[in-house]
């Protein structure tokens, strides 16, 4: 049906649907869910974001902005459940964890939100239309079925990764990799991921995800089971970027996959909440803009490794020296905890002195979207967290790929092999969180990759052209008539009319979808 008709149906057919969103308590998961809540609310649906006090406090500006704009978006704060003794008081977000042994206690505590969530849902005057919960929040499956509400799971990474991960699980790839990898080969044997429309090779070393770490087996199994029992999936991507993977993912899951991204593209958002993205920052955005204004267009390499990856001083030195040796103007984000170590603090000051006039080191949380949108930025060294990668794509900025763990190695393959917008730094081994002493990437790798990205040669320009084109397509997808915009219309409409029972949609036409699936 043409959109006008769908929209008029939405506008006239009973009360708007109510979506209850349950993000995982990690910035890289909360940020896209907040963006999704805005998209839903701006299109007339009610959106309630469920979180705990520490995380709710970070979202004050989101709640205030929604109130000012009279959007039906609310932050629902549930008390943080009693946690195992080992978890420090007040630790409610992955970015507050300082010890690898605290992740499971944090996730177990969050699991205990099931009761309070169910009470909240039952106390509502009208039963909500749908729960959209992070795929890691498997505990929402029982709540949804007990209250009788359809549930979609939100899978945060690229759809390319989601499909690889699902196929790897279905075909026992993880088990094979773990039983056959020999210590001598250090996990470098390659395995082809089955059921992919393109050839994808992984190694045990790189396909190891955060959730595969020892002790997380039961947690991961619960998450996979919650995927199996969900009514569909929501993904932060768009068809013009990942059409074949969306179609194959939908076929492999046997349930609807809603490609609604990039979620952050939402012209009506309040500037303050888009800058902070839920984090306090001491970085002065106007000083950053002023510095960028003084740089030549497309000359600056922006460097940031997301919200959780942390580097030890010896790892920071390799980044800094590599950037310096590349000779390129650089804007590097170093986390407060990294910069606080005395030896790192001193060394960073010396680097700034050596690169004065062409180097800016930001300490803390950076206004990433504003930086990527500045015309002076010509490249991004990224850890390939999907939010950062998608934000770079949507801004038309090509990348140096430096995956650290989890989905990031496969996001790299998408960017480099499929989309042709990235230069790999050459990371062949993960660096896990906290105390991992490995230095798998050294200064020479950084300098080479940055120079290759920024050298202005024919290959670099072609990469840049492709990135720009994907950026334009990302914006078109979110405009009225674009695939993500229309998918969102369909999603809202289907929950308004049928309670989601008749949902299917990648947004692909049937023949188009069948053609894509044939190649899986
Ligand atoms: N981000 C930001 N400022 C920073 C670091 C990160 O705004 O200094 C945002 C970034 O724009 C992205 C998110 O935090 O939206 C990071 O998510 P991603 O998936 O890239 O990585 P993760 O943090 O999950 O590893």
Describe the structure.
This protein has helices at residues 3-12, 27-42, 53-58, 60-68, 103-111, 114-123, 140-147, 159-170, 173-180, 204-207, 217-229, 239-253, 271-276, 285-293, 313-326, 336-340, 342-354, 368-373, 386-394, 408-418, 443-454, 458-478, 483-497, 510-518, and strands spanning 18-22, 46-51, 73-77, 130-134, 151-155, 190-192, 201-203, 232-235, 257-259, 300-304, 330-334, 359-363, 377-382, 399-401, 422-424. It is of the alpha/beta class. A seven-stranded parallel beta sheet has the order 3-2-1-4-5-8-9, with helices on both faces. A six-stranded parallel beta sheet has the order 12-11-10-13-14-15, with helices on both faces. Strand 14, helix 20 and strand 15 form a beta-alpha-beta unit. The protein is globular, with a radius of gyration of 22 Å. The model has no long low-confidence stretch (mean pLDDT 89). Uridine-5'-diphosphate binds next to helix 2 and helix 19.
């Amino acid at each position: 049906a043409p959109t006008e008709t769908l929209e008029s149906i939405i506008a006239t057919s009973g009360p708007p649907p109510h979506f209850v969103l349950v993000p995982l308590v990690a910035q890289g998961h909360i940020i896209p869910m907040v963006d999704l809540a805005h998209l839903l609310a701006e299109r007339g649906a009610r959106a309630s974001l469920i979180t705990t006090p520490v995380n709710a406090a970070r979202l004050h500006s989101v709640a205030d902005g929604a109130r000012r704009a009279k959007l039906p978006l609310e932050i629902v704060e549930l008390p943080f459940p009693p946690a195992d003794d080992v978890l420090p008081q007040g630790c409610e977000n992955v970015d507050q964890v300082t010890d690898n042994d605290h992740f499971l206690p944090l996730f177990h505590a969050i699991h205990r939100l099931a009761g309070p969530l169910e009470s909240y849902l039952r106390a509502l005057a009208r039963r909500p239309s749908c729960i959209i919960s992070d795929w890691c929040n498997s505990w929402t499956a029982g709540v949804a079925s007990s209250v009788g509400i359809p549930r979609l799971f939100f899978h945060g990474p690229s759809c390319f990764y989601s499909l690889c991960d699902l196929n790897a699980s279905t075909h026992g790839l993880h088990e094979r990799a773990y039983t056959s990898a020999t210590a001598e080969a250090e996990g470098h044997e390659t395995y082809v991921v089955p059921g992919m429309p393109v050839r994808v090779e992984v190694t045990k070393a790189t396909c190891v995800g955060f959730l595969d770490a020892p002790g997380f087996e039961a947690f991961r199994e619960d998450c996979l089971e919650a995927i199996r029992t969900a009514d569909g999936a929501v993904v932060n991507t768009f068809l013009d970027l990942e059409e074949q993977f969306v179609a194959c993912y939908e076929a492999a899951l046997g349930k609807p996959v809603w490609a609604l991204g990039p979620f952050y593209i939402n012209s009506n958002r309040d500037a303050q909440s888009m800058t902070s993205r839920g984090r306090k920052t001491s970085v002065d955005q106007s000083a950053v803009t002023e510095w960028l204004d003084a740089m030549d267009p497309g000359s600056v390499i922006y460097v940031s490794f997301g919200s959780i990856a942390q580097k030890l001083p010896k790892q920071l030195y390799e980044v800094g020296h590599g950037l310096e040796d590349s000779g390129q103007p650089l804007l590097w984000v170093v986390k407060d905890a990294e910069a606080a170590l005395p030896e790192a603090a001193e060394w960073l000051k010396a680097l700034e002195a050596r690169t004065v006039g062409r180097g800016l080191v930001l300490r803390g949380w950076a206004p990433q979207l504003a930086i990527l949108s500045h015309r002076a930025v010509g490249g991004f060294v990224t850890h390939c967290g999907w939010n950062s990668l998608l934000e770079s794509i949507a801004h038309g900025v090509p990348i140096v790929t430096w995956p650290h763990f989890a989905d990031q190695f496969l996001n790299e393959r998408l960017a480099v092999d499929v989309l042709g917008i990235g230069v790999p730094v050459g990371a062949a081994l993960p660096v896990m969180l906290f105390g991992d002493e490995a230095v798998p990437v050294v200064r020479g790798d950084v300098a080479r990759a940055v120079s290759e990205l920024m050298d202005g040669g024919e290959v670099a320009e072609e990469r840049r052209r492709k990135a720009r084109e994907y950026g334009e397509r990302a914006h078109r997808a979110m405009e009225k008539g674009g695939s993500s915009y229309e998918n969102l219309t369909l999603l809202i409409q289907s929950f308004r009319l049928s309670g989601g029972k008749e949902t299917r949609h990648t947004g692909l036409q049937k023949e188009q979808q069948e053609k894509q699936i044939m190649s899986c």
